[in-house]
Design goal:
With about 180 residues, the chain is of the alpha+beta class. The chain contains four helices and four strands; from the N terminus they run βαβααβαβ.
């Protein structure tokens, strides 16, 4: 992120954020992020629809359920076959106990795969980021956008964003570059 500075913009409503995002998208920005205390409209998503990834949680859950069920069935059936006992005409592998173990393995595989997919897809293993300078406005209903702006574009972007509204409606904070 050399030659870039982080710009934080807080707006009171979605219309102002849309205008601020238009200004930010007009220049070369990186790491554009929009946060709010309530669910945001889809048009405030910084990524265009063609760049959004589909969630992989459902396929992971189905795969985990199939793998867990198959693994449990193999363990239950092979355990019955591994112990040579006289069954007196009964089937060597009894379906009801194997079905119970298979069901439990399916449930366990589904849950473990779902938790793993959510942790990976949500990037929950990362350390939490420190709050931004305007994040204190989020509980009051403000919407905060953050972007890394090229050093040469900072003044123009600040000027255009300041022209969007009065001080009570839009607030700007520019982080100083780390030395």
């Amino acid at each position: 992120m050399s030659g870039r500075r982080r710009l934080h913009v807080a707006c009171t409503n979605a219309a102002r954020v849309r205008r601020a995002l238009a200004v930010l998208r007009a220049v070369e920005v990186e790491e554009l992020e929009v946060r709010g205390s309530i669910p945001l409209p889809d048009d405030l998503d910084p990524d265009p629809p063609e760049r959004r990834r589909r969630s992989r949680v459902l396929p992971a859950a189905v795969g985990g359920a199939l793998a867990g069920g198959f693994g449990a069935w193999v363990i239950a059936s092979q355990t019955a076959l591994a112990y040579p006992i006289l069954t007196g005409g009964m089937p060597l592998v009894a379906p009801p106990p194997v079905a119970i173990v298979t069901y439990e393995g399916t449930a366990m595989g589904l849950m473990l795969a779902t938790v793993a997919a959510v942790v990976i897809e949500g990037r929950l293993w990362r350390r939490p980021q420190p709050p931004g300078p305007l994040d204190g406005l989020l509980p009051e209903g403000w919407i905060v956008a953050t972007a890394a702006v090229a050093e040469g574009e900072v003044e123009r972007v600040e000027r255009e964003l300041a022209a969007l509204g009065d001080r009570d409606a839009i607030r700007l904070v520019l982080e100083q570059p780390a030395d």
